[in-house]
Design a protein that fits this description.
The protein has helices spanning about 15-25, 35-45, 50-55, 60-70, 80-100, 110, 130-140, 145-165, 180-185, 185-200, and strands at about 5-10, 30, 100-105, 120-125, 180. By secondary structure, the chain is an alpha/beta fold. The protein has one domain: P-loop containing nucleotide triphosphate hydrolases (Rossmann fold). Helix 1 (about 15-25) crosses helix 10 (about 185-200).
Amino acid sequence: MGKNIILIDRQYGSGGREVGRKLSEKLGIPFYDGQMLLMAAEKYGLNPGIMKEYDEKNVKSMIYMIAMYADYGIDDSGKLLPQKIYTAMSQTILKLASEGPCIIMGRCADYILSDRTDCLSIFIYASDMNFRIKRAKEVDNVPEKDAVSYIKKRDKQRREYYNFHTDGRWGETTNYDLCLNTSVLGYDRCVKIIEDIVTE
């Protein structure tokens, strides 16, 4: 595979994680998502619960967290918790990519690995809001009456996180090698398109 590090960013409710899992099974390569948080926490001595709270959320929300978890606000070097968490996640992503072909979900991986030529960056989205609502209800048990506002909130968090840590713009087509609409193509066709690209 010429492009053997696959980096997937996604709208909330688009099923990007489902595409990643199916692609992992097809290609027989590791798929990294939430477990990266535990790897980074263990390696760099961070609280896993706080890392999960911060995961792909904007830095402004950390003001509340620092107030709640004062001991974790600033480390011995004076580095703020958001910076420390992002550094730990970046180092974890670099290590995973160095170990061989894999699929990495979100966390600014396309930016962190932008110097590599063996990466394929993908943005998964869904133009049909009903598709996203259904996914939110199934995966996170979001009540239908709250689904649209929840979806917008999660997208906003991801956008602010990405835009803060990178010089790119989350979701803009020019940031990615490939953009796929799951509500039009379906998961399996998206997987097939990516598979064809990386195995050609």
